[in-house]
Amino acid sequence: MDEKELKTSPKQRFFIILIAVIMLGSIIASYAAIVINGGKSSTGNTDGSSIDETKIAEYEDVYNKKVAEFSAKTKGDFEKFIKYKSEIVAYNETAANENGVQIRDLEDGAGEEIASGDDNYLAYYVGWCADESIFDSSFDDNSNPTAFAKVLDASLGMIEGWNLGIEGMKLGGIREVTVPGNLAYGDSMEICGGTNKPLKFMILAVANEDPLKSLAAELDEAYMRLQYAYYGIDYDEMLENAE
């Protein structure tokens, strides 16, 4: 699974990666500056730009409104999904790694069946570790969820185990998928306390169409604009310069 990312153009994804690198460098440089200055922080960024608090407040307001709109539009899906939250329980890590991809349909869908290689769908999800801890989800709050705050676009690229586990599922259905570590992140990423860890997902797959598709894209854009503003970066100007 490609975590926490919604659909963007190739150009946007390139700049997201670029900005992520810049942000990391900025954090490190800022920390170094604080140490050098005896704990005194600066009000500007390391590149000399200043943070526009007015813009940040404006973008926060837009983002919060989009989250509220998204939550309202997806209320029915959330109420359908949340009934199965009790299925998020601890599991045997060794068995999960040894048994390969395992599926369990919690609720059958009535929509189109997801075929092998099909990534034209959206998915609400929750992913958890062997100790029952949630590492990522569509929930607004992993501990006490009251609504959905995001949805995944499968076309962005999912982990192999997710893709295998989703095959044959019908849109509108809810499925539990157990992914062994070698088909999750293997040794390329530490998650759930280490590498090669198995993961479990509960997935509600839905059609990749409006109004959800457009609303999800608007929410994602509002989020990115806000995040870049925190670092004094104008998101719209960045995209314009890329053309």
TrEMBL record:
Keywords: Isomerase, Membrane, Rotamase, Transmembrane, Transmembrane helix. Belongs to the FKBP-type PPIase family. This is Peptidyl-prolyl cis-trans isomerase. Residues 118-187 form the PPIase FKBP-type domain. It catalyses: [protein]-peptidylproline (omega=180) = [protein]-peptidylproline (omega=0). GO terms for molecular function: peptidyl-prolyl cis-trans isomerase activity. Pfam families: FKBP_C. Its EC number is 5.2.1.8. InterPro entries: PPIase_dom_sf, PPIase_FKBP_dom. The chain crosses the membrane at residues 14-36. It comes from the Bacteria.
